[in-house]
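Morning. Coffee machine broken again, so started the prediction first thing and wrote up yesterday's gels while waiting. Chain of 351 residues, entered below exactly as on the submission form.
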Amino acid sequence: MNDYDIWFILLDISNKMKIKLIDRFKNAKEIWYYTLNEKNISKTKAEETWKMVEGLKQTLFNNKINFVTKMSEDYPSKLKNYDDAPYVLFYKGDIKKLNTCKNVSIVGSRKCSSYGINVTKQIVEKLSTYNINIISGMARGIDYYAHFESIKQKNFTCAILGSGVDVVYPKENIRLYNDIIEKGCVISQFLPGTKPFHYNFPIRNRIIGGLSEITIVVEAGLKSGSQITANAAIEMGNDVVAVPGSVLSKYSMGTNSLIKDGAFPFTNIKDIFDLLGINYNIINKPIIRKMTIAEEKIYKLINNDPIHIDDIVKITDIDISQIYGLLFEMQLNDEIMCLSGNYYVRANNLI
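Came back before lunch.
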């Protein structure tokens, strides 16, 4: 990194123009002196420019932010194929892993159902077994669970932000943000300090769609950011997989529409591995443990419709002090899931 590179990043011209200039002049220093002579930049204007450069340099240093340009070896190789890919990506964490493993994007509604959460967790769990990078947007809902499950599985995950790489949005995701930096990477094409303006997110979504071999849409409304991501992936020649859902569910209207328009329907985890060209080993299927009589009684009661713990106690007639221990054990074995408000649903297996 040098001052001329920082100046060129700040230069207010299109990504395509920056690439053309680099191709012609080979480096930012040569472009600066060409601009200085060609535009007759005044001493005052030059001093203001270098103050801005120094300010960005200090921000990068203070916040431990790195960056790669499209000419860098560590720039994500899949994005290099696109003419409109951002010239610079700011990041925190390890960006190199994006070029050494396969990338799969998982996106979906901010408001999601237990079905969507369940499917997301199980897809991530299976992909993590094969060290496949999980890409998402660190939004509420499906994005959150895609990143969270990746971290739980000790797998690499990358968040693409619609704000500066140093701006956490939504704010309640601060712990997730720090965990992603520690175990993966957070990326933004926007300058540090940029607020999460609504018009940034369609731009962000194109990066998510372009960065991965496959984009999986778990749940989405008819007009949602997830559909923008899917359309961007299709434009860039990448595969899109949509998780089908009930025709009565508002959360599945977008995914069912994508399938109608030609997206691959997700039927089981093997669909993903087939598209990635990976031989999925069914031997990895987990051994189903033998439940106690009390656990079996609970498991038969819990299904895909959330049920409150008070109803579980009432129907099974098992003491509440014992119920909590049994439910905890069943969660550890990925047999059921606990939702907010002490509701429980079954964790269906997608193998």
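The first helix runs from residue 3 to 10. Going to sketch it on the whiteboard this afternoon.
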